[in-house]
């Protein structure tokens, strides 16, 4: 007798199918979004054109705590993250407090060096992103977007850490030699910002310290 014609077997099949389809969605609670999709995070200085409309890209997505934005870019652009609308509208960090923004990339003195930057979304609020390269021309020409980060499943344990300890001097000129895939801390940023890896490492240190204190 075919399983489908047996009510009990059919019910069991439907139950297993439902369980199977719901299991991956729990695992996929956190998502990574590639900014601009295949267009990447790029600006053409000859045409003053962005490689895609980032406002439109951002508007087509939903973002939650613990998700990452992945910027596929090069050292001709920067990635500035801020929660401060004034800084965003200025297309500049010149008047911003050091702890009011994070800068990723742009630390290289070589043009066009490939760079991949991963930015974790850790604030349930409006997040602003822009490139401050070319004295704000890139940003004014569309290298910027804002997103509203929702609560979703909340921060995962890996990101749910105490704030990073006070700022430490960034690595020296060797930073410019960092291979693609490394978030480079620009010399201009003396704030608490750093690559996600830098902050993750710092938080790891803090949790280790806390663990030592408690156990
Ligand atoms: C998202 O990106 C982060 C940072 O690069 C990485 O650690 C994580 O494994 C990625 N998650 C997925 C689902 O690709
Ligand atoms: C910028 O645009 C010009 C004109 O379309 C093109 O020739 C050039 O290759 C572009 N530059 C980059 C880096 O894509
Ligand atoms: C690009 O934009 C800047 C600032 O708006 C302007 O000075 C420059 O002439 C523009 N270049 C082109 C090719 O449109
Ligand atoms: C980019 O997309 C936004 C939202 O769809 C739209 O309002 C805006 O006019 C677009 N910008 C350009 C330069 O096309
Ligand atoms: C945003 O930055 C400006 C300086 O650029 C500062 O005056 C203002 O207090 C900041 N706003 C908040 C909410 O921190
Ligand atoms: C980076 O900027 C330099 C200087 O403006 C330019 O010559 C080069 O073509 C750019 N490279 C890319 C990949 O956009």
From TrEMBL:
- Where are the annotated segments for Disordered? 150-196
Residues making up the signal peptide according to the UniProt record: 1-22
Q: Where is the Phytocyanin domain?
A: 31-151
List the biased-composition ranges (Pro residues).
159-173
InterPro entries according to UniProt: Cupredoxin, Phytocyanin-like, Phytocyanin_dom
UniProt keyword terms in alphabetical order: Signal
Q: What Pfam families does UniProt report for this protein, alphabetically?
A: Cu_bind_like
Enumerate the PANTHER family for this protein. Answer: BLUE COPPER PROTEIN (PTHR33021), OS12G0454600 PROTEIN (PTHR33021:SF213)
Record protein name field? Phytocyanin domain-containing protein
Species of origin: Eucalyptus globulus
């Amino acid at each position: 007798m075919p399983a489908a014609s047996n009510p009990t077997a059919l019910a069991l099949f439907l139950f297993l199918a439902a369980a199977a389809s719901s299991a991956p969605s729990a695992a996929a609670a956190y998502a990574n979004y590639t900014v601009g999709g295949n267009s990447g995070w790029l600006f053409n200085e000859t045409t003053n054109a962005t490689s895609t409309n980032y406002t439109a890209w951002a508007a087509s997505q939903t973002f939650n705590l613990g998700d990452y934005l992945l910027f596929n870019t090069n050292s001709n652009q920067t990635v500035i993250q801020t929660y401060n609308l004034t800084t965003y509208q200025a297309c500049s960090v010149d008047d911003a407090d050091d702890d009011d923004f994070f800068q990723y990339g742009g630390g290289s003195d070589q043009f066009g060096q490939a760079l991949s930057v991963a930015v974790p979304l850790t604030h349930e609020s409006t997040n602003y992103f822009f490139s401050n390269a070319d004295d704000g021309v890139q940003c004014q020409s569309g290298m910027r977007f804002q997103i509203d980060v929702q609560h979703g499943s909340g921060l995962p344990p890996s990101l749910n850490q105490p704030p990073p300890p006070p700022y430490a001097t960034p690595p020296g000129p060797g930073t410019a030699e960092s291979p693609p895939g490394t978030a480079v801390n620009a010399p201009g940023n003396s704030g608490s910002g750093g690559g996600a890896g830098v902050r993750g490492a710092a938080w790891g240190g803090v949790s280790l310290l806390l663990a030592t204190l408690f156990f």
